[in-house]
Amino acid sequence: MKNAGGIRKPGPPRLDSETWEGDAVSAQDSCLPHLFKTRRVRILILVLLACALRGTAQQDASSPYTLHVQANEIGVTFHAVDENRRPLTHLTQKDIELREDGKVQKHITMLKSFEDLPIRGGFLFDASPSMEGSLDENRAIMQMYASRLLRPGVDQAFVAQFDQDVLPLADWTDSGAALTAGADKIGWRANRIADTAIYDTVYRECRDRWSQFRGEATGNFLVLFSDGEDNASRVYLSEAVDMCQRSRTAIYAISNSRHSAFIAAGQHMLETLAAQTGGKVFYRLDADAAWKVMQEIEAEQRNQYRLTYLPPNFKADGKFHEIRLRCRTCEAKFVVRSGYYAMAR
């Protein structure tokens, strides 16, 4: 897909020739006006530079979660727990062994622990006919998160339904009531044989929804209520996964449809999408199991590590590279994506 993942960032304000014409000095001007105007330009430049530096310093001081990476650095977000499933939050580079395609990586450029992160979560409801019978269960799971785990003033979430296209039902909000009201609007398409585009939906949502949070460290997830049947996407799995990884968004698929267990292709797709983004797949959840799952998702996104490294001889050839983490100093279990596609950065 051409221009995959691109959101063009607005450039800095232009200072073209017209902007400066009023300050230009011709050879016919007297010496004093020339000095005055030249000095005025210099003072203006110094003032603008000072303001820019001050703004940058204030942003850095007030944004403890801001992240910056180099072009060919690979970013890996992961969650670590001990043998009792308690979060491990004080691991260092000496504790971590990172392997890519079986080879130990020696050029780790950053390892940073984030505790009690703000969360940005999305709930996507597949509107295909095969999912209609599980709507009430899926809506109850979303409402469980909205009423019991979402932190007003800290976290934000959205709700949407999709088939070939996405229908927003509740935009980013910290209100559990607004999310519940959005889920109550879910409706089934009039055309019962319309197609479903899961990859396209995941790609667009990760590209567009999280663009306003770019550079911030937040725990990001999409809960995908679907049976995994995709017959209309124009982007490939690799492109959808790459966009999830760029936005540091894990996919958690919940498949409560009665048909899910009989759709091998759908299961494989959901499990691949979840594994390669650092998420998981859950089938046929009752209320108690669903509550434990939502707590698990919240814990994994609330406490995370951000690791970056420079793989030797990086080539943007689209190939998949497997990632494995191991703790050298303790018994730790990592929740981490299975690898990355080497796309152009």
TrEMBL record:
Residues 1-20 are annotated as: Disordered. It comes from the Bacteria. This is VWA domain-containing protein. It comes from Silvibacterium dinghuense.
